[in-house]
Amino acid sequence: xxxxxxxxxxxxxxxxxxxxxxxxxxxxxxxxxxxxxxxxxxxxxxxxxxxxxxxxxxxxxxxxxxxxxxxxxxxxxxxxxxxxxxxxxxxxxxxxxxxxxxxxxxxxxxxxxxxxxxxxxxxxxxxxxxxxxxxxxxxxxxxxxxxxxxxxxxxxxxxxxxxxxxxxxxxxxxxxxxxxxxxxxxxxxxxxxxxxxxxxxxxxxxxxxxxxxxxxxxxxxxxxxx
Length: 226
Hints:
Distance between the termini: 24 Å
Order of helices and strands: HHHHHHH
Number of helices: 7
Shape: globular
Number of strands: 0
Number of domains: 1
């Protein structure tokens, strides 16, 4: 799904519609962050263990991750099973990201990967703070963010064959879109979840962070190589 040095088909994401009962906000936030944090650790471990695999194998793993997301949606009423599927997804995602991370570590230096990961973590913290501290309900921008994401996917597909958009420019666009989507997702948690389970909300936050991380890898890596 992600291809260094060239524009990729773009990011992917499970869109969760709004609506439904709300939950305790502090408890829900703690659950979502806890689930997401464990997922990131699993992804990092899988990425390290499979750092020697080829890009082709990584692409197959990312496709497998999409399948796991679809399967996971069938178990939303069973939180424990859904959680296991989510952790399986994060492991497969780590396998898919392994050759990408290895590529940037080899061509731009390991510190680029560390900086991208640290910036992603700090950025998610800031965006969460913005969503919870200020009174703006970012959910009102859900339609705009989703439309921009669809446009990114189309542009990415076209750019694979035409090189229409420079990879770094495309990464900045991804960064902008997923910054907005992150604010939307944290606003959903602030509103009590809109009737969605902690696992479903964790999936959205996880995918936001992963796409931001990949975008930052491209941006930082291109600066280092220039």
